[in-house]
Predict the 3D structure of the following.
Amino acid sequence: MFRTHFTVVLWFLCTFFPVRAKALEDREWWRHAVFYELCPRSFQDTKGTGVGDLNGITARLDYLRGLGVDALWLTPCFPSPQVDFGYDVADYRAIDPRFGTLQDFDRLVAEARRRGIRVVLDLVVNHTSDQHPWFLASRSSRRSPRRDWYVWRDGRGPGRPPCNWLSLFGGSAWTLDPVTGQYYYHYFYPQQPDLNWRNPAVRREMLDVTRWWYQRGVAGFRLDAVDTVFEDPALPDNPLLPGKNAFGDPNMVNRHNYKLQEVHGLLRDLRRAADPYGAVLLGETYTDSIPELQAYYGNGRNELQLPTGHMLAMAETLSAPEFRKRIDALEAMDAWPVWVFGNHDLARAVTRFGDGVHDDAIAKDLAALLLTLRGTPILYYGEELGMASHEPGRREDVVDPMARLGWPSAKRRDGARTPMQWDAGPAAGFTTGTPWLPVPLDAATRNVAVETGDPGSVLNFYRGLTALRRGSRALLEGDYQDLAPADPSLLCYLRRSQDEAVLVAVNLSPEPRKLDLGPALDGWPAARAKLLLGSGASGPEGGLPGELEPYGVVIVALAQEQHPVPAAAAGPAGS
Ligand code: GLC
């Protein structure tokens, strides 16, 4: 009886567990994936229109594979008037003809899959375009069946909107529609009316949209602006603060129309729709608060797998103590961290953290952190070349409406959206036409072709990092231990799995620094250390260096001290 049970248990463990582990790994593919955000309009144009397209992305898949990318996040490529560069969607189940066709999309997904790359789309959940047929119907009459798909209210009196809420992009968040005499609500541009997620029909439809794309092979969604989806239906005024913002509006606390708790119910619904497809949900969830970030994962881990808290990206300066504080905070969280330095809304990382002298070395520091910290990294296209932001210097050259309206003090985004720099040819190999944003001058030397030929380039450092990561259990899954070096300008940590230990040391200062880890490295003899990757121009050589170059990085494999096995414990010879 006992033997039978034992055999059954053994059989169960041996057969079921490896399969389960594998199944889990497949389902949780996003834990190990390197994500790459790209703006289709800026990546590669194949038609000479000056705007990138889906076939352009397909044509560059081998580059992305070689870079070590596992998943692409495409900013919105649905039909759109492009008031907010695609974040104003006019049809959630089609592709904008500027970018191609649904067939082009299917081909992109299939070709990407052949290379082991998944495709994640950007779902704008908070609002649609004012040209979406739902909104056109909604605004047509108070009795339209679509009326309640958006947020309509009477004003407080002639010329007085329903409450004092402001649009993030300037002016009141309410626009009067003369046809029906009511105001509609828009957290962003007036051309981006907010959907009414309290209406179950809206919820049903959007969940169906996600399933429609999953069935087409989409591997997940980045959920845009989730913090803005709900607002208090009683419309209380927001508290005012002293002073004015870039648009000349009063400063205010968005207490009643931002980060409302109802969003968690919506995230759970979206997750329930995603799970049967093994799909991932990334979320645009800016926060500096760990409890708030933690909440986006859901209590039963049933909301977002990858909320992008942007904790590191939001650091004010490149400072090891500041970075350590943020890394420690994410590490202490009971969830899988996400690392991000840049996106299409932020000035590029090198522009924010560079010093104009050591920018390439700093780009490598950021790359090393992104790809060796415990968690999922999201790269932003061009970051791997060390591309900087190039903002237009004159208002008339700005294309982002928000920056034009709030010129010169509003946030600028054009500079981080310039075309990908492929080679030294005209328009950096991005287009044969006139690029929609000017190609930066440094594209002549900072581009994929030139950097590929330079062993010390930022691009080759990224390639080295992703290759290292892919082959290392410690980097993919190992735990994280801060080695807390005495020198405050260094970040040094150990990533450790059962059979592997990798040490990462980063000097975030412009001077050379001694790498003295003292007792933290007891038991890990320097003689057994092996340099895996360094940010200097030369290839990996030797073990743990005694010094780090200005803004230098080294990544070293460590091996534990070997103690001789006592003769008695070694067992009889020949056994
Ligand atoms: C998100 C997008 C941003 C867009 C806004 C409105 O923040 O990242 O680019 O302008 O939503 O959709």
